[in-house]
Amino acid sequence: MDDDALLAEQMAYYRAGAAEYDRPYAEREDLRELLAAVDDLPIAGDVLELACGTGQWTSSLAARARSVTAVDAAAEVLALARARTASATVRFVEADLFAWQPSRCYDTVFFAFWLSHIPPARLPGFWNTVASALAPGGRAVFIDDGPAAAAEEEVLSGRPAPVAVRRLDDGSQYRIVKVFHDPSSLTADLAALGWSAHIRSVAGKFIGVAEPPATSAGEAARGPARVR
């Protein structure tokens, strides 16, 4: 199964499961603690939120930001995000994150539980796009599952990209990309791409803040690269 087919199935999962998306946030204390952690993160200025889902994080970002542009590819979750987010400073965009190009630069690029859904071969391109989307002095802020979370997933072995199986209430099942990044390895990988990152573990998950390569401001002036 190539990356394109796997990503298509991943998208189908999130579209079909939109109504079940928020359940973990209601049931799990660790996720509620992470939501509260946004208040201590360097969220400022104009914010680009990637893979915003149902908007669990969007309102918290809006409370700290001058504006938020929240992007997701699934219309079903975006509908829920719009319904729960009343702020006039938030703009929602429906777009494929592996093809979309921001038309402007941002002070902060934020993504929660998205990095783990990117196939490893596409990570350098993703980080290049994030760098290009940042204004001079801007930072990327991200939250995701660490290696300990693998015990909570049905992980398939022997695949070119890490794959997990997710099931919905109707019994349907889908394969998704699920990469359990180790904070120290991720820090080193980002350093190899020219980023300066500080990533800390929090209850089996991690929170990262990263500054792009020094050349990114010039690249941003020429426009962001495609995430491919």
Automatic annotation (TrEMBL):
Highest taxon, organism lineage: Bacteria
InterPro entries attached to this UniProt entry: Methyltransf_25, SAM-dependent_MTases_sf
SUPFAM superfamilies: S-adenosyl-L-methionine-dependent methyltransferases
Pfam families: Methyltransf_25 (PF13649)
Single GO biological process annotation from the record: methylation
GO molecular function, one term: methyltransferase activity
Domain Methyltransferase: 47-138
Keyword terms, alphabetized: Methyltransferase, Transferase
Protein name: Demethylmenaquinone methyltransferase / 2-methoxy-6-polyprenyl-1,4-benzoquinol methylase
Upper classification of the organism: Bacteria, Bacillati, Actinomycetota, Actinomycetes, Kitasatosporales
